[in-house]
Amino acid sequence: PPAMLRDEDTEADFQRFLRRVDEVASLLQGLNSSDSAVREEAIAETEKRLREEGASREEEEEEEEGRTTVNRTLISTSVRAFPSQIKAGHSSGAFLAALEKDAKERAQRRKRNEQLANALKEKGNEAFREGDFALAIQRYTEGLEKLRDKQELYTNRAQAYLKLHEYEKAISDCEWALKCNKNCLKAYFLMGKAHLALQHFSESRQCYEKMLQIDPQKENLFKGCVKEANLEEKRVRDEERAQREVQAGNAAALSIQELLQRINSPGQDLLCCTVGIRLLAEAVDSCTGQTLFRTNNGFSILGNEPVRGAFCAERKSPAEVELCVSLLLLWQAACAGNEENQRLLLGQAEVSAQLPELLSSGPQEIQRETLALISLCSESQSSRRLLARQGLSRWLQILLAFVKNRDKEADGAMSIPSADSFLVGTHTLVLLPGALGLIFPSFPVFQGRLRPESRAGTALALGTLGNLSAEAAARAQLARSRDCWLACLEECSAEDTQGVLAALGLMLNLLLEHNDTIQDLAVPISGRCLALLSHQDGRIVTVTTGVLSRALPASPSAVEEVVKGGVVKKMLKFLKVAGQLTSSYAIKILSICTKSSRQAQEELVKWDKRFQVLLKLLESEDEQMVGNAAFCLSQCLLLPGAATSLLDSSVVQLLLRQAGGDAQRTSVQQNSAIALGRLCKAEPRHIPQLRKLNGFSILSSAMKHVPSS
């Protein structure tokens, strides 16, 4: 492609071009003015500029023969002179006609150039799709020679430069695109990527913040980009810190390098590899340890023939089972809370192929550790998506089968055996740096961290499903599965607290969906929740309340059953003593119940004397709670005498404040206005207070936006 001018040259050229455009536009405006004085002044200024332009053009033509032209690839500064036949003294009518003719010629030329530029852009796009990024850049550059203020050509070329790792050039093109269109989202996005690749983390985040300022609807994209930048910055800082530890001679850091070298050295048998891997898992006990494991190619351990053979063997010997379990424990230690390590692990073809097999048909101890590893990885969005690429449906089927087929034998298998069961032969002792001990003796190091407490496999599987259901595709698939719902309901009947919490968490996610399965099972789900509201564990009570708040809208029958079961009284109790989250769920449940159940309305009036609980909620800073409280109140005001009980209270002031605009949400304003209207209609003695607060105009304005019922 043609050579680029220096940035300062092109910047100056571009600014001169923009000034000339502004000046011509100003002259045209003056020539078309109805004010004769302004028009005459514009004509005089135009004639002056034409004379100057003509003189300048003659000088350039004289010098043209003796100099070499520069091929400028970006912004042209030449402005074509008006027709030479326009001379001073011509009538303004003739001048305007010539000016109009020149403008038309310019428009026609621009149209032709735009067609050529678009054609070159399409050729560049085709080359880009085929992976020929150098050719794409050439085509985009040729397009810019035809039309130098075409933003898309700059951003497309910047994207191609990114593919070729020419980040500075990508940034320059993005800057030019922003000169053409200051609100170009793609330019800020690509510039953020380029800065990130150059490890300019602050500049990268600034670009993403600009995107959000231009279009607040891009919040999800913004969050994803900023998270990527933060993770990359963390990776770089972690690696710098780990390198300093090695340079300082830190014993623990050096031991990781030594262990990896010994495991990968030729001639190691299964037992040697197994013991080394177990010691390595113990050494990788910090962020620095995880980083050193990664930077010393720890994830290439499957390149070791004994390790790969044991991991991939279809029928495993006891020694191979032990090595496989040790490897899974190592990966758990290396990947815990470390998304970069998770990415490297799950990106290996052999790992992604074997993990589903190990979980579905491996020995019980291998199933246990595979499940633990998958559960750990499913906690981060990026790793969930990597798992989904490996076959989301398959993972869900395996996990559901694991839950569905659980029995006493399976639960017993989930108890983690002690390291004492690890059979050790007689081998040569080898000392390691960092006082880790001997490789081949009785492994006292294993008796601590690597023997976690036993936990039920079902709870872990349900928790993993709950993590995976944070992704829309997995959530939709699981929400349609009757087996999944029945397994959750069964687990909620168990005594294992972790299992109950896992099942409730999964149901809370799945209830974001709406389908026939949920509608069919809403009554048993609500019934099970009603029983759990009396649980002694506050965590269970909170999540149960959330599940109930999402299940009830699916079925009027479910509402009827829980109202009969005393849910109104329980929710009022929670609103008096529970925390913010439980209270937000509780008032939502009351709003759902009072919407369709007169019994719920009557019980709320009965148990909330003078609506003390609801009035307190109307003062909340949480608008969602305020809106639900106003809705409940408006429903209860349909009952005779309810409005009278609120005389001499602050209800008019509270509702008027929300209806009048304190609330940001329109729904909150509407609910408050409806409640206020019903209050004054049911009990006219509230009207003087409304009049005193100048509330009629506010109420009238708010009611205009309330749908008629």
Automatic annotation (TrEMBL):
Q: Which Gene3D superfamilies match?
A: Leucine-rich Repeat Variant (1.25.10.10), Tetratricopeptide repeat domain (1.25.40.10)
Can you say where the TPR repeats lie in this chain?
Answer: 185-218
Which gene underlies this protein? Ttc12
Protein name, UniProt field:
TTC12 protein
Keyword Cell membrane attributed:
no
Lineage: superkingdom? Eukaryota
Biased-composition ranges, Basic and acidic residues, are 37-57
Region labeled Disordered — which residues? 32-69
User: Which organism does this record belong to?
Assistant: Rhipidura dahli
* UniProt KW keywords: Repeat, TPR repeat
Q: Which GO terms describe its biological process?
A: axonemal dynein complex assembly; sperm axoneme assembly
Q: One Pfam family from the UniProt entry?
A: TPR_1
- GO CC list: centrosome; cytoplasm
Is Repeat set as a keyword in this record?
yes
